[in-house]
Amino acid sequence: MDIDKMHVTSRKQVDEEDIPLPGFRFHPTDEELVGFYLRRKVDKKPLEIDLIRQIDIYKYDPWDLPQTHDVRDNEWYFFCKRGRKYRNSIRPNRVTGSGFWKATGIDRPIYSSVGSGCIGLKKSLVYYRGSAGKGTKTEWMMHEFRLPPSSHMTHNQNAKSINHTDDKSFSHEAVS
C-alpha cells in the first residue's frame, strides 16, 4: 500500500515539473551567459534545470533548429562545440545544409561587473542561404559567446561556446 502511494506521489511530481513556469522568461545578460552558464558548462557543474541544451547547431538550418522553452520570444540558446573547417586549423566551420553563418565585425570582449578582467568574447554572425561568395543574406542572426583564450584552460574547454540564435524579423528588438 505504501509503495502505491509513493508511486502516485512521484508521478504527480513529474507531471508538475513539466508545467511551464508562468511569467518565466529566460533573458540572461552577456555577463551571465559567459560568467555563469558557459563557465559552469566548461567546469562540468550541471544545473538542476536544463535551460540551455547542447546540440550541434550546424547540422540545422536556423529555421529548423529545435525550439526550446518559450517560442514566443523567438530567441534560443544552445551549447555547441566549435567545429573546425580543417582538422589542423583554428578556422571554425559554420556551414549548414543550405547555407552558412558569416561573422560580422570583430570579437567584442565581455567584462565582469565585479572585476575588471575580460571573462568572455561575443561574436555576431548573420545567416546566408547558398554557398560562400554566392549567398543571399537572411534576417537570421546569431551571437556566439566563448571563453577567452588563457594559459590555464585546455583546448577543449576553450572550444565550447554558447550560441544565441535570433530571428530578427520576428523579434521586438535587435539583440546587441
Automatic annotation (TrEMBL):
Example GO molecular function: DNA binding
Protein name per UniProt: NAC domain-containing protein
Sequence ranges assigned to domain NAC in this UniProt record: 20-168
SUPFAM superfamilies on file: NAC domain
Keyword DNA-binding attributed: yes
Biased composition (Basic and acidic residues): 163-176
Renumbered residue ranges of the record's region Disordered: 149-176
Compositional bias ranges of the Polar residues kind: 151-162
InterPro entries for this protein: NAC-dom (IPR003441), NAC_dom_sf (IPR036093)
This protein's UniProt keywords: DNA-binding, Nucleus, Transcription, Transcription regulation
GO terms (BP aspect): regulation of DNA-templated transcription
Keyword Nucleus: yes
